[in-house]
């Protein structure tokens, strides 16, 4: 837990250094702040608990037909419990967490389902498809807790993702069932079970500093009930978890609508968008280079607008380097295919780094065969994923005069622009915002654990906390001047990153 102690020490010793009157000492936000507000650069631990046959086919030996889901494995006979527990104990180990951390990733996304909680919470199965299979899944919870602890020992954050809800929130087997339809909305028992599972997870993990959040549902099929369900469920979770515990919501493939929804909220809620470019007919006929060009062109402006609508609280919870075979010219050498995947991956990383608050590659590994499009292990070996994904390296604390010069330069540019455009900016608002942003950016950057860089990611959410403190100390609300304080804060953050990252 060296990262946490380092953070506490730096926060208590930070001091402003500029010529304008400094604000009083900021109020510490707690040891979870770095983990939860930093830019998340992660990997999905796919098919560890929530199974997918194409990723880990070995687990499905003996599964009942159609042999695609956790439910099919559970129904496969008396050997199901042993098969699952053997898989849970071997699919991801301490060596894997070490590999992830050494390459600059700072977070993992852990997909689990409601039935994995049945050991300590038998009631979660009541009235659901999995009620007869308590004995099969009762050993999952202890292993989930161990996984979270092990990730934390390597400085990795963990996003807990409810990948499978009772009845299935989407028709795909990764939601736990193989029947190809959505039954989540069909019964009260399904929704009650899911609510119970989420409240239990929040009560268990909200106090764990390196658990960066809880995702309510993975890829739910969108319908008219979903937003109301989000509202109600968020309120329920907030009854057992503090308001600064991040809750992640899937965009249900309606990104702009839910970006606007997130942007209207004041609590720490994050939008999860999944970006794949290998499934539609149009995508299948574009090369990796063509995809990269589009991501750097028209799509960039669309994506940036969606991130802005969500007040910067948008992440890409799943993406990959996979391209459909039709994307490649017949007879193209494997090396050229990898070159296209490499360009495709780099264009996505550039997009996410410049606009999103975080991203998680899908997935960590596959069980059979080579697949540099979907397996991060294989993609890293082929140098499709860069050997280091952790952003710039922190060069160390700059001298005090560097901050003074950056603040003076930013302040001059700010006042000159707005005076020339008919406004009357207030330097007593801009300057403390800039100073706070600079100081806080350095707290984040210097909190790296040697294998990853901690960079502020949820800037506006962090700024809102700091603004409330500033208003409390100043004894007044900023009101219409809020934009100017936030503008200074964001410029302070960007200046510190520009100066201090190699």
UniProtKB/TrEMBL annotation:
Query: Matching InterPro entries, A to Z?
Result: GH, Glyco_hydro_5, Glycosyl_hydrolase_5
Q: GO molecular function of the protein, one example?
A: glucan endo-1,6-beta-glucosidase activity
Family, according to the entry, reads as follows: Belongs to the glycosyl hydrolase 5 (cellulase A) family.
This protein is called Glycoside hydrolase family 5 domain-containing protein
Location of the Glycoside hydrolase family domain: 88-365
Phylogenetic classification of the source organism:
Eukaryota, Fungi, Dikarya, Basidiomycota, Agaricomycotina
Positions of region (Disordered): 1-24
Q: Which GO BP terms apply?
A: glucan catabolic process
Q: Does the keyword Mitochondrion apply?
A: no
Please provide the record's keywords in A-Z order.
Glycosidase, Hydrolase
Which organism is the protein's source? Kwoniella newhampshirensis
One GO CC annotation, please?
extracellular region
């Amino acid at each position: 837990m060296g990262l946490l102690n380092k953070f506490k020490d730096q926060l208590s010793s930070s001091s402003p250094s500029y010529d304008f009157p400094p604000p009083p000492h900021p109020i510490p936000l707690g040891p979870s702040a770095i983990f939860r507000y930093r830019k998340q650069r992660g990997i999905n631990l796919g098919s560890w608990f929530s199974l997918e046959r194409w990723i880990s086919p070995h687990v499905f030996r003996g599964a009942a037909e159609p042999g695609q889901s956790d439910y099919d494995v559970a129904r496969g006979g008396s050997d199901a419990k042993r098969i699952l527990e053997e898989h849970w104990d071997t699919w991801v180990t301490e060596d894997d967490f070490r590999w992830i951390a050494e390459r600059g990733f700072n977070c993992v996304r852990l997909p689990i389902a409601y039935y994995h909680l049945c050991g300590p919470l038998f009631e979660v199965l009541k009235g659901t498809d999995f009620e007869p299979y308590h004995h099969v899944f009762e050993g999952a919870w202890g292993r989930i807790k161990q996984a979270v602890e092990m990730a934390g020992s390597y400085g990795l954050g963990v996003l807990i993702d409810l990948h499978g809800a009772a009845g299935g929130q989407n028709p795909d087997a990764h939601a736990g069932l193989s029947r190809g339809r959505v039954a989540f909305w069909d019964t009260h028992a399904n929704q009650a079970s899911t609510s119970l599972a989420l409240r239990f997870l929040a009560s268990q993990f909200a106090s764990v500093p390196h658990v960066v959040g809880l995702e309510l549902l993975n890829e739910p099929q969108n319908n008219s009930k979903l937003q109301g369900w989000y509202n109600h469920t968020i309120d329920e979770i907030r009854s057992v978890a503090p308001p600064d515990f991040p809750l992640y919501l899937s965009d249900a493939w309606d990104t702009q609508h839910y970006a606007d929804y997130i942007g209207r909220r004041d609590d720490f809620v994050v939008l999860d968008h999944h970006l794949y470019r290998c499934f539609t007919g149009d995508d299948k006929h574009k090369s990796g280079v063509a995809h990269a060009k589009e991501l750097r062109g028209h799509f960039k402006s669309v994506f940036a607008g969606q991130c802005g609508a969500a007040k910067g609280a948008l992440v890409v919870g799943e993406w990959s380097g996979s391209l459909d075979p039709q994307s490649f010219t017949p007879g193209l050498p494997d090396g050229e295919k990898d070159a296209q995947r490499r360009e495709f991956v780099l264009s996505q990383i550039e997009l996410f780094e410049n606009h999103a608050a975080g991203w998680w590659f899908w997935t960590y590994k596959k069980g059979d065969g080579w697949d540099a499009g979907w397996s991060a292990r294989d993609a890293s070996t082929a140098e499709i994923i860069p050997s280091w994904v952790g952003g710039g390296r922190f060069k160390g604390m700059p001298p005090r005069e560097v901050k003074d010069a950056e603040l003076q330069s930013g302040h001059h540019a700010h006042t000159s622009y707005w005076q020339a455009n008919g406004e009357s900016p207030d330097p007593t608002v801009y300057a403390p915002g800039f100073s706070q942003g600079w100081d806080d950016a350095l707290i984040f950057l210097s909190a790296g654990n040697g294998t990853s860089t901690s960079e502020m990611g949820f800037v506006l959410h962090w700024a809102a906390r700091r603004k409330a403190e500033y208003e409390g100390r100043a004894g007044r609300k900023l009101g219409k001047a809020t934009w100017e304080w936030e503008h200074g804060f964001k410029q302070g953050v960007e200046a510190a990153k520009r100066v201090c990252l190699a």
